[in-house]
Design brief:
- The chain is 85% helix and 0% strand.
- It contains 4 helices and no strands.
- Helix 2 packs antiparallel against helix 3.
- It is rod-shaped.
- The mean pLDDT is 83.
Length: 115
């Protein structure tokens, strides 16, 4: 259950909203006085910044995706390698229990290799 806010918290939030609203009005008035050339330049800069931020974010997401893919690939490779080695040991006639202990494979996994 959420605790009730005391009056000072509610008042301070209202004051903050009023201050922010007042600042927005001042900002709008200030921007209205800018030349069209300045506004165009500003929006060009903002577009360039947004594009840069997007590309930077995508680069980070791409790198994260690559790292995840590499980790999955390593795990898959280790798993497949373990199965291949166990299969070869079984073909060589090594005792099933020894292969199980050495490879840490389950009984089910070993049985599937023998079929």
């Amino acid at each position: 259950m959420q605790a009730r806010k005391n009056n000072s918290e509610v008042i301070s939030k209202k004051d903050k909203q009023e201050r922010e609203g007042g600042l927005m009005v001042e900002a709008v008035k200030k921007v209205q006085g800018f030349s069209q050339e300045y506004k165009d330049s500003y929006w060009d800069d903002m577009y360039d910044k947004a594009e840069h931020d997007y590309v930077t974010n995508m680069r980070g997401e791409r790198e994260t995706g690559i790292k995840i893919g590499e980790a999955r690939g390593k795990l898959l490779g280790l798993s497949e390698g373990k199965l291949e080695i166990a299969r070869n040991l079984l073909k060589m006639g090594i005792d099933k229990e020894m292969v199980k202990e050495a490879s840490k494979l389950t009984e089910e996994e070993l049985n599937s290799l023998m079929n």
